[in-house]
Amino acid sequence: MTSVYVSIGSNVDKHKHIEVAVDELSGLGQFMRQSTIYESPSLGFHGASFFNLIVEIHTSLTLEVFAKVLRNIEIRWGRAVDAQKYQDRTLDLDIILFGDTIRDTSPQLPRKDIYHYPFVIQPLYELSPDLIIPGDGRTVRDIWLQAEQLDVLRAVRPWFSVSE
């Protein structure tokens, strides 16, 4: 089984889409943990705030199959096939880490969002502060300690929980 960290985000009908994403992802392997849900402002465009969280799943699926399934979930729940960056999202599912996989082709792993976005590093830190980022050598904690703008995040009291 491979330990996978997936970032979930939505700023359109957020409660519904976050809940269905967690439900859908729980079927992809042995569901392990979910972070706190954080609300953050939209970045790069004027839009509604986002709900973001990270889930950790242990799966036996290959990276290629896992990535394809995530894309199909996004589309099934209303994401346009040709969706552009910096626009409203019903659902955004990104593989942040896939075991120790390092690659420059799509999906790029580890995902560089770890280094740039508070809504990625904060929930990842919450789940696995001592995890070493493949190819980097630093822990999630090391990166979190250097992160900026963590204060833009607001923890959202979960309205549902997924059993481990």
UniProtKB/TrEMBL annotation:
Signal peptide: none annotated. InterPro entries: Hppk, Hppk_sf. Pathway: Cofactor biosynthesis; tetrahydrofolate biosynthesis; 2-amino-4-hydroxy-6-hydroxymethyl-7,8-dihydropteridine diphosphate from 7,8-dihydroneopterin triphosphate: step 4/4. Keywords: ATP-binding, Folate biosynthesis, Kinase, Nucleotide-binding, Transferase. Pfam families: HPPK. Its EC number is 2.7.6.3. GO terms for molecular function: 2-amino-4-hydroxy-6-hydroxymethyldihydropteridine diphosphokinase activity; ATP binding; kinase activity. It comes from the Bacteria. SUPFAM superfamilies: 6-hydroxymethyl-7,8-dihydropterin pyrophosphokinase, HPPK. Residues 5-129 form the 7,8-dihydro-6-hydroxymethylpterin-pyrophosphokinase domain. GO terms for biological process: folic acid biosynthetic process; tetrahydrofolate biosynthetic process. It is an enzyme of class 2 (transferase). NCBIfam families: folK. This is 2-amino-4-hydroxy-6-hydroxymethyldihydropteridine diphosphokinase. The gene is folK_2.
